[in-house]
Amino acid sequence: MSPHAIFDRLLQSLVAQLPSDQHVLITLRFQKQAPVLIDKLRTLYGNKFDNEAGFIDWLEKMLRVTGRLIVDRPLALRALDVQRSGSREWFSSQDTLGYCAYVDRFAGDLRGVTARIPHLKKLGVTYLHLLPFLKARQGDNDGGFAVADFDAIEPKLGTMEDLQELTAQLRSSGISLCSDFILNHVADDHPWASAAKRGDPVYRDYFYHYPDRTQPEIFEASLGQVFPQVAPGNFSFVPEMRQWVWTTFYPYQWDLNYTNPAVFADMATALLQLANRGVEVFRLDSTAFLWKREASNCMNQPEAHWILQALRCIVDIAAPGVLLKAEAIVPTAELPAYLGSQDHTVKECHLAYHSSLMAASWVALAEQDTDLLRAVIQATPVLPEQASWLTYVRCHDDIGWNVLRPEASSGTQDVQQRLSYVSRFFAGEEASFARGASFQASDPDAVHGTVGMASALAGLVSASTSLEQEYALRRILLLYGLTLCFGGMPLIYMGDEFAQLNDDDYRLQAGHEYDSRWLHRPLWNTELEMTAHDVSTIAGTMFRSLSHLLQQRRSLPQLAAHQSRRLLTGVPPEVLAFARGADDEALLYMANFSDQTITLDLVSCVTQAGLKTEHCLWRNQLDQSVHGDTLNLLPWSQVWLARATDTLHKKTQDIDTQTLSPDNAGKPEQCSTTNGVIA
Ligand code: OTU
Question: Which atom of ligand 1 is nearest the CA belonging to 184?
Fold first, then answer.
């Protein structure tokens, strides 16, 4: 069959059921996506069929289902598709902001989330990531990451109608709902797994299963382990099948076999069904693990990317207003591929978690040195068109230090020693201010991850004086400031807006006690919320200070994700500094990751960044102070500097003369900024 004939047949199966007024639009979308879609799927699955005709039949069947889902797509969502397709402004501008929470911990159930919309609006949230809310496995289920049904809601959290109602309410408040889409595995009580256990050969092939340990041992030789202490190994014996099943995570999370085309088709359908319920963003969980290959760590394989690219094509045909967000906790060098190619010939996900930026920002706090953080930033390429980073300080998972190995080994220090020190530091050893805990490591010598709420890791639990408390708050704000200025979609983790502490009670809850990530998954605290307006409290100071940073960011177009970023290298090691945006309007983020006041020569910083120096006055957007030749950065403080030329010419009287005084370098307390802590 000629390529032309194939195209026509496939297009027919896609549009046959559509009302005629949709034909042109969908045909255009298909024309755009078909070459990549067909190519990727043929490379992945061509050899799974007896001949080309068999492959085309399978594609036709899948596109018929896609066509039906386009027919089902509610009008309001179709309108969003049209409005958003081809534009990235809606998710890359400086006023996008994410918030992440567990439904039950945040608001009881899906209906309860509606009552929290005013809180989200107060912060300026435009995107809400609710952690897994689909029907989960009975019993232990990894906080919902073991899904038993992609088309049903976890009964404790509500119904499908509640979800649709919530998405509509959020949408009318300018908030997009993000749902996890756990595409690497399903629960062992998902109907596919149950059928496999009953011996159904069709569903057995939805999973990787082996009669004995021979093949698993071959794979194990090069595989890592995600939960080495509570779920060692990557295969679990399933007595009903008398087979070893691939289980990268917990034994009850069965990896899907993406070499089977039926798995791809069913998962694409599941995603589009949820999109039709009003989910606007999908957090694609564990994307790095989708393809297995002997003698590799079975992460970041080319085929995993092709699967995502084919999925993106289907989304761009049926629901182009939807975003795909890659969760791939992998070293910096492996991250960009999840966003497609620089020249935008390859499209993959719209967003990707910048996990090494997050981890490196914590390392900078521990080491009081930004060397590693700068190395990560230098290794971060310019964003491709239509893509953005997801920047964050904390999330529901541990902080994994191992993603930093490539950058951490570039210095003279031993990597193992360096990262182990960081891990011990955040566990509260090493005479540190942090009060987190170690997460599992595969052997006693390996580097442990870290768990704990941002406030505990930043020193709020150990603080015994008001200065120490202020320093702890500044450290949290420093990291949040980085996520807001870096260029991407920043995410607030529930509780951080009130500097909420660890939940030590997790040990008392059945099913949570063995997974220390629950230390940082506390319940929504109404008392903290009640004091949010009271700046004499820690929660109030944090809320107000963070809100202030958020508000400033919204007014600074230089901070939109696609604006350029230049790292300033000629600053002391304790300082991280970069410029955002075009020269004339550049915004400088400068942050002191140490407990000493640092005096910076602003003129040389600016010159070194290649920025014009003729109007050498800079206004800190966080407190409106104006700075000339030098700048004093207080311990753990940040400034967001923009040129203050208009101030110089028009409002000279307003300028704080102390700040402008040329001899202020030796008197940091007179001219320093307040770091956005505005109690
Ligand atoms: C993801 O995590 C989820 O975020 C975790 O909450 C789940 O437990 C896991 O998948 C299984 O669904 O490797 O890149 O704590 O960082 O498991 C995917 C380790 C992952 C997590 C890791 C992560």
Answer: 12
Domain 564-670 has CATH 2.60.40.1180: yes
Residue 679's pLDDT is 43
Candidates 109, 285, 398, 623; catalytic one: 285
* Rounded Cα–Cα distance for residues 48 and 263 (Å): 13
Catalytic residue among 327, 407, 574, 623: 327
Name the pTM for this structure.
Answer: 0.95
Residue 400 DSSP label: P
343: annotated active-site residue: no
286 CA from centroid of ligand 1 (Å): 6
**Strand 127-130 with 565-567, pairing:** unpaired
Q: How far is the CA of 644 from the centre of ligand 1 (A)?
A: 45
CATH code of 100-327, in short, is 3.20.20.80
Q: Which residues, in sequence order, are bridge partners of residue 566?
A: 579
Q: Which fold has domain 3-72?
A: Rna Polymerase Sigma Factor; Chain: A (1.10.1740)
Ligand 1 atom with the shortest distance to the CA of 400: 16
Residue nearest to atom 14 of ligand 1 (CA): 286
Burial class (CB in 10 A: 0-12, 13-18, 19+), 554: middle
pLDDT < 50: residue spans in the chain: 647-673, 675-676, 678-679
Choose among 472, 477, 391: nearest CA to 436. Answer: 472
327 is catalytic: yes
Nearest-CA residue for atom 4 of ligand 1: 397
Spacing, Cα 328 to ligand 1 middle (Å): 9
Instruction: Please provide the CATH number assigned to the domain covering 350-367+388-562.
Output: 3.20.20.80
Do the two domains 100-327 and 350-367+388-562 of this chain adopt the same fold?
yes
Pseudo-torsion of CA 128, 136, 335, 274, nearest 10°?
-60
Rounded to whole angstroms, how far apart are CA atoms 239 and 257?
20
pLDDT, residue 344, reads 79
pLDDT at 667: 35
How many angstroms does the Cα of residue 396 sit away from the middle of ligand 1? Answer: 9
| Backbone phi, psi, residue 619, to 5° | -105, 125
What is the three-class DSSP state of 471?
Answer: helix
* Residue spans per domain, the chain: 3-72, 100-327, 350-367+388-562, 564-670
